[in-house]
Design brief:
heterodimer, A: alpha+beta, Jelly Rolls, 2 domains, eight-stranded antiparallel sheet, 3 helices, 37% strand, B: mainly alpha, 10 helices, 0% strand
Chain lengths: 221, 225
């Protein structure tokens, strides 16, 4: 067998190796290799499970990460990764920031609703403009939050939410299209009731519809 | 005692330099904001990636561990360079996307393979020695893919892309040259000591353990992250 520092070029063994220096029998070298490989595997495995998994991935099967304070490192990393992944857009894909050129308008308005009668109140919003709202009623009402897109045929409406027996609601709306967006409230009781609405948004016009009455327009400055 | 201090110093230096693998935060921001050519910055980032990339360095240590003649060192390093340049350029320019965790696991395996080869495991256990030059070339291809996936994480602008990738590649080679110089100096110094052959087997076993650790780290990342 060729010895280690043989300078004879041998294409089959370009790199001389360490173990050839010794004249150990092959069996013993195999044994050493097995021990070395086993030890390497053991060290790598122990470090992986006790240190790397908790510190990098917040996985701590033996509780060593918690004891060494490494688990926190992994958990922080996981949280940051989750936050980074969700950055840039809301769950629905709506942009988080929608700058507007004008300042927003706000109002609090109270409506009287006669027994068994209905009322509609809608804001004019352009596509992407936001509305922040809260309303409450003095008795349960049948309601529908809906919109009429610009250019839609008369009587066409898109419903956002239709619910009966409501005494109030709060939320935000980002107009999915340009048009008028608002509520229908129906008083199902035998007495006069009131609805109080507070809103803020990029509207400058609102319409109030009541059956057998002309539309009341409200301009905001 | 002196040797102990030297070892501690080297380990401390190494861990400080090697703390970050991949492209770190501010460099990533720079890369993503890039429009057009940025030759020197890309060269710098390539060199930095190589010098601080423990997986590439471990493999290089394995490759030149038993190479005594400069001619051999140059041959093997050239093979490694050809391999990783091919896949770095081809991967990024050809838009070939590989899973970074799996690629890095193969890179970890290359370290294990090289250490096993240095321990003469192939001849002693399997009775034959696979071509060592081919192994370096083939593993070089995987190291290049690893470099490519790091760059692909940042959607680089198409303007000046070729110039930028080539600059990064040139930087990688410069960093490799720098790292190799230090590894060779350390190895040459160590070889003059009587302890070299005595500890060579154990050293490669440690290198193997590091490689196995890299494999486990990357595979767990593949399944958990």
């Amino acid at each position: 067998m060729a010895t280690l520092k043989s300078q004879i070029p041998n294409p089959k063994s370009q790199t001389p190796t360490a173990t050839e220096t010794a004249v150990e029998p092959t069996q013993e070298i195999r044994h050493r290799l097995a021990v070395a490989f086993g030890a390497a595997l053991l060290v790598a495995g122990v470090l992986l499970v006790t240190v790397i998994l908790p510190a990098e991935y917040a996985v701590d099967p033996l509780g060593t990460g918690a004891r060494l304070g490494l688990l926190q490192l992994g958990e922080t990393g996981k949280q940051v990764a989750a936050l980074e992944a969700g950055k840039g857009s809301a769950p629905t894909g709506v942009p988080i920031l929608a700058p507007q050129e004008k300042s927003f308008t706000q109002e609090t308005v109270t409506f009287q609703v006669k027994p068994k009668e209905g009322l509609e109140y809608k804001y004019r919003l352009h596509k992407g403009e936001a509305l922040l709202y809260s309303w409450s009623a003095s008795a349960p009402m049948n309601t529908e939050f809906h919109a009429e897109p610009d250019g839609a045929p008369r009587g066409y409406a898109q419903s956002y939410e239709k619910k009966d027996g409501m005494t109030g609601a709060s939320g935000t709306l980002t107009a999915p299209f340009s048009g008028i967006h608002g509520w229908y409230w129906q008083n199902t009781t035998g007495q006069d009731q009131t609805v109080t609405l507070t809103s803020a948004g990029y509207y400058n016009l609102a319409h109030e519809f009541r059956s057998d009455q002309p539309v009341k327009n409200k301009n905001f400055k | 005692m002196r040797r102990l201090l030297l070892t501690i110093g080297l380990v401390a230096m190494a861990s400080a330099a090697l703390s970050a693998h991949g492209v770190s935060g501010k460099d990533a921001v720079f890369l993503q904001g890039l429009e057009g050519r940025a030759i020197v910055p890309l060269m710098y980032l390539g060199a930095k990636h190589m010098v601080t990339g423990y997986d590439h360095l471990l493999f290089l240590v394995g490759v030149i561990f038993f190479l005594y003649r400069l001619k051999d060192v140059l041959l093997y390093v050239s093979l490694f360079t050809i391999g990783h340049s091919l896949t770095l350029l081809g991967g990024v320019l050809g838009g070939i996307h590989a899973n970074p965790y799996l690629i890095d696991a193969v890179i970890g395996f290359s370290v294990v393979y090289k250490a096993f080869e240095n321990m003469d495991g192939f001849r002693k256990v399997f009775g034959f020695q696979p071509d060592t030059r081919a192994a370096v070339l083939i593993f070089g291809l995987f190291h290049g893919f690893g470099l490519a996936t790091k760059l692909q994480d940042f959607e680089l602008a198409p303007q000046g892309l070729v110039a930028n990738i080539v600059s990064f590649n040139v930087g990688v080679e410069m960093g490799q040259g720098l790292a190799l110089t230090f590894i060779l100096i350390a190895l040459t110094f160590w070889r003059t000591r009587s302890g070299f052959f005595h500890h060579a087997f154990a050293t490669n076993a440690i290198v193997m353990a590091c490689g196995l650790l890299l494999v486990g780290y990357q595979l767990s990342g593949y399944f958990l992250a």
